[in-house]
Amino acid sequence: MTKVIAVDLGASQGRVMVIAYGGDDFSLEEVHRFPNVPVKRGRFLYWNVKRLWQEVVKGVEWARGGASSVGIDSWGVDYGLLDKKGNILGDPVHYRDPRTRGLMEWVFERMPRREIFERTGVQFLELNTLYQLASLVKTRSRLLRRAATYLGLPDLFNFWFTGERRAEFTHATTTQMFNPNEMRWDEEILEAVKIPVNVFPDIVEPGELLGESLGLRVCAPACHDTGSAVAAVPTKSEDFSYISNGTWSLLGTEAGEPVINDAVYRNNFTNEGGAEGTFRLLRNLPGLWFEQELLREWRMKGSVVGYDELYEAADKAPPFRSLIDPNDPVFHDPGDMTPRIGRYCVETGQETPMSIGEYIRCVYESLALNYRHAFCQLEEITGGRSPVIHVIGGGSLNRVLNQMTADSTGAQVVAGPVEATALGNAVVQFVSLGELRGVSEAREVLSESLELQVYSPGETGDWDEAYLRFMNLLEADTG
């Protein structure tokens, strides 16, 4: 069996896995798992990227025996800047840092919002790389003046492995600075915002060999974690919907080319690159960030609560007692979540959750209703809706949210694989090695070999009523 190493860096933790392929199934072995904890220094929230690098090297060294190659993926939008000698100019700033507040309007004064969309096809989020770099321009940061190279986070790790300064396609497309129609960095946007064009490196496709390190081929997989995850959707159909569920919920479908039109713009969907030249037509939605923050808060206060206890508490709590708009900016920053949920409920005339079960049920129901809303938008864009939703990633283990998603949307939910990102990372490496003919073959193998959980929708009447309440919250939030 051919073996590869998949390094998957998520916003809350990283993992190094050995994945083997023998022709009819995949096997996974977790070699190293480590937390990814941001650090606050002065006014800014940073990623501790040097510690992450140490953990990555440690894991790869443990895993490399018998492996042919290694590939790295990470979350999108964040980046590092290098000087001329290749030294990193400080730790990357966290996408949740508030430095981008108000920067979208500042950028739109230099290039109209609609023109940026027409050039990039990307969803407007304050955390996008474009606005992170614009904050450096606006404050006349010395970092930008000293920078010789921009590298997305996985590109930075690939540079430390190989010395090659390259930008991988799927990660570049998350920045809102990449033109998918012309397949290049959009110099017109960069020049309008006064971001130096010369710092952006050449772009490589998923599967390209970057060099060698530690006796391994270093291969660029789909370096954006969702790009890798979607490569591992276990389906034989070319027409499918998915929710890649982790800290964020990435909800959408796969397209052969970017979809840039009025409906995509109006509904704030995005076009991000995928393996084999595909595009992920999706919305980036708040996900299990709420669950993570609630668990952290309760554990810090001494509550002994794990996921099984969380699901049981949600099951026992009364349904539809209170709902939130997960997209509301009040929930964006780290920190105690229960006071913010409580204030939101008071301000919207709802009952305030009083127990762990009521808080987490409020979150799960609100997420499921938000998914329904996004799928209605996707249906408007594509003209159809898949009867099956594939839930992949860590969130596929959440039986309560999976059932609520089925009930809310009226679609069958197929949950798994949990380690979709690592599997998709490996799939691209196996294709590069010639072990697989393409992603479609891998998806077929996964659909036949994995044990997947299926959730069928139940009665929709109560969910229809709750959806009307939820839409009223959305309309109130948007003015």
Can you offer a commentary on this structure?
It is a single chain. With 479 residues, this protein is α/β, with parallel strands linked by helices. The chain folds into two domains: 2-223, Nucleotidyltransferase, domain 5 (2-Layer Sandwich); 233-416 and 437-479, 2-Layer Sandwich (Nucleotidyltransferase, domain 5). It has 18 helices and 21 strands. It has a seven-stranded mixed beta sheet with strand order 17-18-16-15-19-20-21. The chain is globular. 48% of the residues are buried.
Give a short overview.
This protein is of the alpha/beta class and 479 residues long. 39% of the residues lie in helices and 22% in strands.
